[in-house]
Design goal:
The complex is a heterotrimer of chains A (729), B (166) and C (280). Chain B has 166 residues and is of the alpha+beta class. Chain B has six helices and five strands, in the order ββαβββααααα. The relative contact order of chain C is 0.13. The chains are: A alpha+beta (729), B alpha+beta (166), C alpha+beta (280). Chains in contact: A-B, A-C, B-C.
Chain lengths: 729, 166, 280
């Protein structure tokens, strides 16, 4: 099925199941410890061995020798495969750093050996016995230096109007530079796989992946075998945030270990290994210039940024993307420098580009509002746009950003905010209020599904994943809605390469795309039922198909044999002529300790515009989770680079400080009641990445409002403010 | 080497109310014994470092890190994981509240979180939201944030107090 | 790796005689400190020795058994001289860590950021050590000699922490980090104070952690503050003008050295005020 034009009134506008606050259907499995994540799939295959990886301890160079004799002879060891034992594996079309093979070391903790043994303890013990000799080479690990060299060079990526003239003639201008650090996804489940490639022919991988079809394709390319010989399963994923979009070394090492030992091998990447072996969000440096008239209308915007990537590219962290679209303004120039560094591969992390871009841009907007003497809410309202400002023929399909701002200001009590920085005290705490806008695109990807109706029970099969987002639940709701069944009569099976290929989970495209895919399959099923009833006028209600004035129970229709249908939703080119996005406004109150500069967030509010909300319970969690991750980004998360040696120093979950329970205050989310007919038949856009966007800047702006100290270098740690605090103790 | 030292240790303990005996490597962590030797699926290893709480289990009545304890140290211990607590039915209200409020997303942290909460709810009185947050700060959640978790715990604590008072 | 779990101090000493062995208590620092590596030394788990656990007063001294867990200290009914130690107990890792981590483990691990050390220094604690040649007692200040280094000799174990009874003493503990909880300290301060009837500081002990290789008592500052009234101008001045020469903080991922020093001044004043006010 092809979605070729914006949808009109349809059954989702009279929904019985979609849009209802349905508790997640996989909840009972998860709260009882029964959900099978990759490493605990003890039952999928017998005789599992355990693999343990070894990582390089240089940032760049080559391996001249590896002594594995002791490891091979250690108790319980079934196989040792080193990077010198095999030719360099192909780099798949989704990867940039090679996952294994050859003597070249291109990043710290690159996998260089896997030890396979009867037990984890034996494998771990033997891995320590491998002696590696390196020839270390100098590497380039310094983004700051590259930024200084690259600033102002090369053609703009996009430019409209006359930016230089607009700045020269502007009444009010701003020119500031902002920095965001390298960040880690830090999903709770480490990368884990069980691989069975015992015969060296057919490969089955039980893994933790956001994208089944991509994983399978990557495995085929990496090992140069036919995709048909590979099966990938990932029914439960313990979080991803982009870390599990692409094939990682866990699956590769498990597969190599399995082929060598001729038995299935399970392997999890040890947590301290993940930060440098796998991917992260690149640091960014961003110079933002704004120009406006005294009336507050933006006349020019310039955004120049740099982020680092592994040789070969692939980093999505382009903070200037949103700058092309978010606010009005006739003159605009954006330029992003992709700097190749020898650090581990940077890659997509939740809202790549927008997350870091808004961390900077929404501080700049706050600074500009102050220069103009304007309320930052009013300033944003004044500069709203309903069209792509660089390409005014392209309208936004449905943009209600101004409503987000107005509703948020009202609900938060923005009019009662602290107005003069440093003016409100609560004992030793300086209290401040801040806000920020948020924008995240709403892409869609081709997505397929198969549906089976048997004795009135619907089974949905798609290779879509549920990485915690709620896919199981919203796909069940979609199926139930389409067939007029109660939710209990729908089973959803996900994450298996034997099922039709879906969009997968990522880029905020999963919910919109995969529900549309299930819709398409259900339309096909409904047509098949209609065909059997020899009519084209059917409705599905209360477990019945209603043809004319006759209601036939679906149980009866599918009593003798299962009725199946399969289809794929493809999204038409008309979407290219529209800007389809999601929008939010965030409001935050913080307290900053007047003597120590500790920042404590006191309350948070998000107002979101993302089309139809398929399930308010799961959508709310997505946004609150994003806000929480952004709180960490604002105040504590930072991968520290060892610049001489080229690795992330704080590579464990103690050193990389994510927000914990006590850091997070009461949070509220409001969804505007909007519909976007251009996105899909369900008129629903994703919210998972919108939730992280803009929040950190709102915290930064509130911190400024509390103290009068502007920090432009994330995370906003206490030491960056101490010398400017009003009190010494 | 003193012959009292062994690199395999015989242990006998109870896990989820069932007697268990095993010969474990001296260096085996308790969470790996539970996952590997016993085939349990509830306690997860995440940070392997004692900070994230995903491996939280109950040992002799108290919530501890399964990744920071050796299986050998559990000789004679009484151990409960989320599977056992589920079967027993003692945390049914809490599990229901977690599902109802969507206090979980990917669910990987959830079993450890529930065991830590079980300890909190075993104490007297209804904890404040601040006390809930402090008690659970050793349990990371990266998906859901914490708001719905605090809501769920508060609901159950209040309901239990009311039931106790009635 | 090999393992043994003795049930008496005598058995433990006997096991350790004549061979390298690593001591395991709650395990909360032991495994992270290995950094993923295995130890080839034998491991002696002391948590099976019941006599090493518990808190009791005998005569003019309090005895905290070496294997007493932080949760026990946190929840015990103790006089207010221990409030600082109890506040520190609440900050040791998380509840799961407090349920297993022990007081002696925290001292023997000798991390510059160990939560237990500053309050115990401020309490003038001694460490009781049993070894093949009998038992000895040394001040905690002399026990920790450097980063992950102590006076403990091969074959010895810590059996107790001894604290002189000081019923008039009040105490406090403050810790600073980027996160609200589960932080690796940027700086921490413990204070024990005794007030005169006029409200001046009659006795004062201040200890600072995470700002030097080993947590430090600020004895010269204590001298300067004695006789001042907490919160008074003299009191503030004494802190503001003090050189903090005992401290040698480092720049790291979490904070600059300068920040640590500035923060310590703030924390000292706050800790003393908090001890005086008796807030928990």
């Amino acid at each position: 099925m092809k979605f070729e034009e914006p949808t009109s009134d349809n059954l989702f506008d009279r929904a019985m199941v979609i849009g209802k606050a349905t508790p997640r259907i996989d909840g009972p499995l998860k709260v009882s410890g029964q959900a099978p994540y990759a490493y605990e799939r003890h039952d999928v295959v017998e005789d599992q061995l355990v693999g343990y990886p070894l990582g390089a301890t240089i940032g760049r160079g080559r391996i001249t020798a590896m002594d594995t004799e002791a490891a091979r002879n250690a108790p319980g060891v079934a196989a040792v495969v080193t990077t010198l034992d095999i030719d360099p594996l192909e780099i798949s079309s989704f990867n940039n750093a090679r996952l294994f093979g050859g003597n070249e070391v291109r990043h710290y903790h690159q996998a260089i050996a896997v030890v396979v043994a009867e037990t984890l303890e034996q494998a771990r013990h033997a891995a320590e016995m491998i002696d590696v000799t390196y020839e270390e080479e100098e590497g380039n690990f310094d983004l700051e230096k590259a930024w200084q060299n690259g600033l102002g060079t090369d053609e703009a990526d996009a430019e409209t109007g006359n930016v230089d003239e607009a700045f020269a003639s502007a009444e009010v201008t701003l020119d500031e530079t902002y920095r965001t650090p390298d960040q880690s996804h830090a999903m709770m489940e480490p990368h884990s796989s069980i691989a069975d490639w015992s015969d060296g022919e057919n490969m089955t991988v039980w893994t933790s992946s956001q994208m089944i079809a991509w994983a399978r394709k990557s495995l085929a390319e990496t090992f140069d075998i036919d995709e048909d010989r590979i099966r990938v399963e990932s029914p439960f994923v313990g979080g991803g945030f982009g870390a599990k979009l692409f094939l990682r070394s866990d699956a590769v090492l498990a597969a190599l270990g399995s082929r060598a030992a001729q038995r299935p091998v399970k392997l999890t990447l040890p947590r301290p290994f993940i930060f440098n072996n796998a991917t992260h969000r690149s640091a960014t440096i961003q110079r933002i210039r704004l120009a406006a008239g005294q009336d507050g209308r933006l006349t020019a915007i310039e955004h120049e940024a740099a982020a680092h990537e592994f040789e070969g590219g692939g980093n999505e962290e382009n903070p200037t993307n949103l700058t092309k679209l978010f606010y009005a303004g006739a003159n605009r120039r954006v330029k992003h420098h992709d700097v190749v560094l020898d650090l581990p591969e940077s890659s997509s992390m939740r809202a790549p580009g927008e997350a870091s871009g808004l961390m900077a841009f929404e501080i700049a907007m706050d600074e500009m509002a102050e220069k103009l003497g304007m309320d930052p809410v009013e300033f944003r309202i004044l500069n709203d746009t309903q069209v792509d400002p660089m390409n005014p023929d392209v309208p936004f399909s449905d943009r209600n950003f101004v409503d987000c701002l107005k509703v948020g200001a009202e609900r938060f009590g923005w009019s009662d905010r602290n107005r003069k920085p440093g003016d409100t005290r609560d004992g030793l705490w300086m209290v401040g209020h801040g806000m920020a806008g948020a924008y995240r695109g709403a892409p869609t990807l081709t997505s397929g599904a198969r549906v089976r109706l048997e004795r009135g029970h619907l089974t949905v099969e798609t290779d879509m994943t549920d990485i915690g987002t709620g896919s199981y639940t919203i796909l069940a709701q979609t199926g139930a809605e389409m067939l007029g069944l109660p939710l209990e009569q729908v089973t959803v099976k996900l994450g298996d390469s034997r099922f039709p290929a879906s969009s997968g989970s990522g880029g905020q495209f999963g919910a919109a795309s995969s529900t549309a895919g299930v819709y398409a399959a259900c339309v096909a099923l409904r047509e098949e039922i209609a065909r059997r009833l020899e009519t084209d006028d059917v409705r599905f209600e209360d477990g019945n198909v209603i043809a004319g004035n006759k209601a036939i129970p679906l149980e009866e229709i599918s009593a003798d044999a299962e009725i199946t249908a399969e289809d794929t939703m493809e999204f038409g080119d008309f979407q290219d002529d529209l800007e389809i996005g999601t929008f939010a406004a965030h409001f935050v109150e913080v307290g900053v300790h007047a003597a120590t500069a500790e920042v404590r967030v006191r309350r948070m509010l998000a107002v979101c515009d993302a089309g139809r909300i398929l399930n308010p319970v799961t959508a709310r969690s997505q946004v609150i989770g994003g806000m929480t991750m952004a709180l960490g980004a604002a105040l504590s998360e930072q991968l520290a680079v060892d610049k001489p040696r080229g690795y992330f120093v704080n590579h464990d979950l103690a050193g990389y400080e994510v927000a914990v329970h006590a850091d997070v205050p009461d949070q509220e989310v409001i969804f505007l009641d909007t519909l976007d007919p251009a996105i899909s038949p369900l008129k629903a856009k994703g919210v998972g990445e919108l939730g992280i966007c803009g929040v950190a800047a709102a915290i930064a702006n509130a911190t400024y409002n509390a103290t009068g100290i502007r920090v432009r270098d994330y995370p906003i740690t206490l030491d960056k403010m101490l010398d400017r605090l009003p009190e010494t103790f | 080497m003193n012959e009292m030292f062994r690199d395999k240790i015989d242990i006998s303990l109870t896990v989820n109310g069932e007697p268990v005996e095993g010969r474990v490597p001296a260096g085996q962590h308790l969470v790996d014994f539970l996952r590997g030797a016993l085939g349990l699926t509830g306690a997860h290893a995440s940070c392997e470092h004692g900070v994230c709480g995903a491996c939280t289990i109950k040992v002799n009545g108290e919530a501890v890190r399964g990744c920071l304890m050796l299986a050998a140290q559990a000789d004679g211990a009484d151990i409960w994981t989320v599977e056992g607590l589920s079967d027993q039915g003692t945390i049914k209200d809490l599990q229901d509240a977690f599902v109802a409020r969507n206090a979980l997303q990917c669910g990987f942290c959830t079993p450890g979180m529930l065991v830590a909460i079980d300890e909190l709810l075993g104490k007297e009185g209804v904890p404040s939201r601040a006390e809930i947050r402090e008690h659970l700060s050793g349990n990371y959640c990266r998906c859901t944030g914490y708001e719905a978790i605090v809501d769920a715990v508060e609901t159950v604590a209040r309901a239990r107090a009311q039931k106790g008072a009635a | 790796m090999q393992f043994h779990r003795p049930e008496t101090v005598e058995d433990a000493l006997h096991l350790m005689a004549g061979q390298p062995a690593k001591l395991l208590a709650g395990g909360t620092d032991f495994f992270p400190a290995l950094g993923g590596r295995r130890t080839s030394d034998a491991v002696v788990d002391l948590t099976g020795i019941a006599s090493l656990s518990g808190i009791a007063r005998s005569g003019s001294s309090w005895r905290i058994g070496a294997m007493t867990r932080w949760a026990q200290i946190r929840d015990a009914d103790l006089p207010r001289q221990f409030l600082g130690l109890q506040l520190a107990a609440r900050e040791v890792g998380s509840i799961q860590i407090q349920n297993t981590g022990t007081i002696a483990g925290n001292l023997c691990n000798a991390s510059p950021a160990a939560d237990g050390v500053p309050p115990l220094l401020a309490l003038d604690a001694d460490v009781e050590i049993a070894g093949p040649d009998g038992t000895r007692v040394i001040p905690l200040f002399d026990f920790i000699t450097g980063v992950r280094r102590t006076e403990l000799k091969p074959g010895e174990i810590v059996t107790a922490v001894l604290v002189p009874d000081a019923p008039a003493s009040r105490s406090a503990f403050l810790k600073l980090g980027a996160r609200r909880y589960l932080v690796i300290s940027i700086a921490m301060v413990a204070a024990n104070v005794v007030l005169s009837s006029g409200g001046a500081l009659d006795g004062i002990a201040i200890a600072v952690g995470a700002c030097s290789a080993v947590a430090q008592r600020l004895r010269k500052l204590e001298e300067n503050l004695t006789g001042t009234v907490p919160g008074s101008e003299d009191f503030q001045k004494a802190i503001a003008e003090y050189g903090l020469h005992e401290l040698t903080p480092i720049d790291d991922v979490r904070a600059s050295a300068d920040y640590r020093l500035a923060a310590v001044r703030t924390l000292i004043a706050r800790a003393v005020m908090q001890a005086v006010e008796g807030r928990g």
